[in-house]
């Protein structure tokens, strides 16, 4: 797989008018192929694998919030990065999730070719599925290099997306508490 990707990068470099054999570019196709595999490693992971049984019984029924989880993803339209942070809250119903697992869930879905809207939903649905929570709220704030480096070139633009499931969708007070806590 890596050799095939490297050959494609070699063709891209040539197609851009460069010489892939010059000193500075000689190993670039292999490095770029490895980097792309790393940036998209979420395809080889599963939710069960990364959670690894870290769901624990608990009588906690108040909101649990993990905020400012950094994320790096690739825009599926231009193959350019978008970078941001994710906030996740849930209302447990007998189970809590190990803290590090929230970051692992974010990474698994972010490390795929994505659009931010789908990424937000995938994270929310995964947390709901794995915890059987009464509700889940997810907000992602990100800056997209496809908008900053090309096209309209707006350096200070950012995008916010949210997905509210269960109680977070049904009860305005729960949603408002979550949104207040992440500001």
Detail the topology: elements first, then pairings.
Layout: H1 2-15, H2 28-39, H3 47-51, E1 55-57, E2 64-75, E3 81-91, E4 95-97, H4 99-110, E5 113-114, H5 116-131, E6 135-144, H6 145-148, E7 159-166, H7 167-170, H8 172-182
Parallel strand pairs: 2-5
Antiparallel strand pairs: 1-4, 2-3, 3-6, 6-7
Descriptive key words:
single chain; about 180 residues; alpha+beta; GTP Cyclohydrolase I, Chain A, domain 1; GTP Cyclohydrolase I, domain 2; 2 domains; five-stranded mixed β-sheet; two-stranded antiparallel ribbon; 8 helices; 7 strands
What report would you give on this structure?
43% of the residues lie in helices and 27% in strands. It is of the alpha+beta class and 183 residues long. The chain has two domains: 2-39, GTP Cyclohydrolase I, Chain A, domain 1 (Orthogonal Bundle); 46-182, 2-Layer Sandwich (GTP Cyclohydrolase I, domain 2), CATH 3.30.1130.10. α4 (99-110) runs antiparallel to α5 (116-131). It is elongated, with a radius of gyration of 19 Å. The model has no long low-confidence stretch (mean pLDDT 96).
Helix-strand pattern:
HHHEEEEHEHEHEHH
Task: Tell me the number of helical segments per DSSP (H or I, 4 or more residues long).
Answer: 8
The main β sheet shows up as: 5 strands, mixed
What is the CATH superfamily of the largest domain?
Answer: GTP cyclohydrolase I, C-terminal domain/NADPH-dependent 7-cyano-7-deazaguanine reductase, N-terminal domain
Summarize model confidence as the mean pLDDT. Answer: 96
Q: What do we call the CATH topology of the largest domain? A: GTP Cyclohydrolase I, domain 2
The unreliable regions are none
- CATH structural class of the largest domain: Alpha Beta
- Strand residue content: 25-35%
Number of domains: 2
Residue share in helices?
A: 40-55%
């Amino acid at each position: 797989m890596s050799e095939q990707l490297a050959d494609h990068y070699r063709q891209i470099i040539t197609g851009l008018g460069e010489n892939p054999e010059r000193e500075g570019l000689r190993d670039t196709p292999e490095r770029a192929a490895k980097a792309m595999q790393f940036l998209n490693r979420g395809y080889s992971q599963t939710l069960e694998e990364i959670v690894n049984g870290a769901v624990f019984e608990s009588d906690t029924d108040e909101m649990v919030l993990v905020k400012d989880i950094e994320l790096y993803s690739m825009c599926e339209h231009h193959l350019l990065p978008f970078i941001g942070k994710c906030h996740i809250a849930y209302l447990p119903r007998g189970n809590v999730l190990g803290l590090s697992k929230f970051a692992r869930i974010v990474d698994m879905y972010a490390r795929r070719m994505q659009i931010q809207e789908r990424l937000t939903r995938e994270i929310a649905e995964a947390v709901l599925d794995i915890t059987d929570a009464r509700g889940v709220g997810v907000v992602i704030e990100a800056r997209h290099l496809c908008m900053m480096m090309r096209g309209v070139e707006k350096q200070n633009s950012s995008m916010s997306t949210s997905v509210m499931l269960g109680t977070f969708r049904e009860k305005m007070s729960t949603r408002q508490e979550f949104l207040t806590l992440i500001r």
